[in-house]
Specification:
The protein is built from 15 helices and 11 strands. It is of the alpha/beta class.
């Protein structure tokens, strides 16, 4: 824990229309960390400031307004800069283009540059996510991939760190990312104390898929397809032939496939496989289960088939993924 005796300056970067919770959540994490350090008669680890393209009061997406004490200055580098997202990121980018230029200038020299939620679009526009894994809010992950095809968008991740670049999923995921920074700086015990105070997970179980796939199914306009999506997500351990799915939707296979693709942008087979891979990721992250058991729970015919599909989707083996992302209670086994 000796590293926390150096005070780290954290800039939270906002702009008109920013998501208020994404700014306040991480700010509270760092503040609570300082509170717990004071209780231990230790100096603070963080000094948080609000920055914006122009200093002054900045209105959020709610009634909340934050005062930016300074403008963006690429010559004045904090230890970390956290760029929040917006409900309408395209409008925000049109109105705050200076953020892209600032990101280009600071990225090679800053220790940590983080983008929360749709804030990742600023980094992608700056070319900083090219060739990198990155995430964003599930509702705009497809748009991010379409607009910036050189970015390896991981739609299910809560947050991702690639070198000095961090990206997170939407809204409360910024708290997860900030807690990870505190854990890295000050140790797991302090980060866990902060998480307990805020009544959140230090490492939440699962990824965005527990929200994104179910929520996507709720927004599908066709009721038969929506019900079938929900049924798929609740029955991944079963064999799921397209004919069975069509029968569940009370449609012919040909019509079901056509309507499913129109409504979801994916074939039924691709939807099932993606859902199974996401379930495997959650099981690998959150439970010390033998790979054969994971394969059965996710509906794969064998652990060999699971390995093949998992590596095709993510470019790593299940063992490598578990070793990198498993929670502290995991064994890292791959039987």
């Amino acid at each position: 824990m000796s590293s926390h005796f150096r005070v780290r300056r954290i800039d939270i970067v906002v702009y008109p229309g920013f998501k208020s919770l994404e700014a306040v959540g991480p700010l509270c994490v760092f503040d609570y960390a300082n509170v717990h350090l004071r209780k231990r008669d230790l100096p603070p680890a963080y000094r948080v400031e609000i920055a914006a393209p122009q200093p002054g009061d900045v209105r959020s997406d709610t009634l909340m307004t934050l005062h930016a004490g300074k403008g963006l200055d690429s010559r004045d580098l904090p230890d970390a800069a956290i760029l929040v997202g917006a409900r309408n990121i395209e409008e925000a980018m049109r109105h705050s283009p200076a953020i892209v230029d600032w990101a280009v200038a600071v990225a090679p020299r800053i220790a940590r540059l983080a983008a929360l939620c749709s804030g990742s679009f600023f980094l992608a526009e700056a070319g900083l996510l090219d060739g990198r894994r990155a995430t964003t809010h599930w509702s705009v992950s497809r748009l991010l991939q379409q607009r910036y095809p050189r970015v390896d968008v991981q739609a299910d991740a809560i947050f991702i760190r690639q070198g000095n670049i961090w990206t997170s999923a939407g809204v409360t995921a910024g708290i997860d990312l900030a807690l990870a920074m505190v854990e890295e700086d000050c140790g797991r015990d302090l980060a866990l104390e902060v998480a307990r105070d805020m009544v959140v997970y230090l490492k939440r179980p699962g990824g965005q898929s527990q929200f994104s796939m179910h929520l996507n199914s709720q927004t599908t306009s066709h009721p038969g397809i929506r019900k079938t999506q929900d049924w798929i997500l609740s029955n991944l351990q079963r064999p799921l032939a397209v004919s069975d799915l069509a029968a569940h939707a009370a449609m012919s296979v040909r019509n079901f496939t056509r309507v499913f693709v129109r409504e979801t942008g994916a074939t039924p087979q691709a939807f099932v496989e993606n859902a199974r891979v996401e379930l495997v990721r959650r099981l690998l992250e959150d439970a010390a289960l033998p790979l054969k058991t994971v394969a059965v729970r996710a509906g794969f015919g064998s652990d060999a088939q699971l390995r093949k599909v998992f590596q095709r989707h993510l470019g790593v083996t299940p063992r490598a993924y578990r070793e990198r992302f498993a929670s502290a209670g995991g064994s890292g086994r791959e039987d």
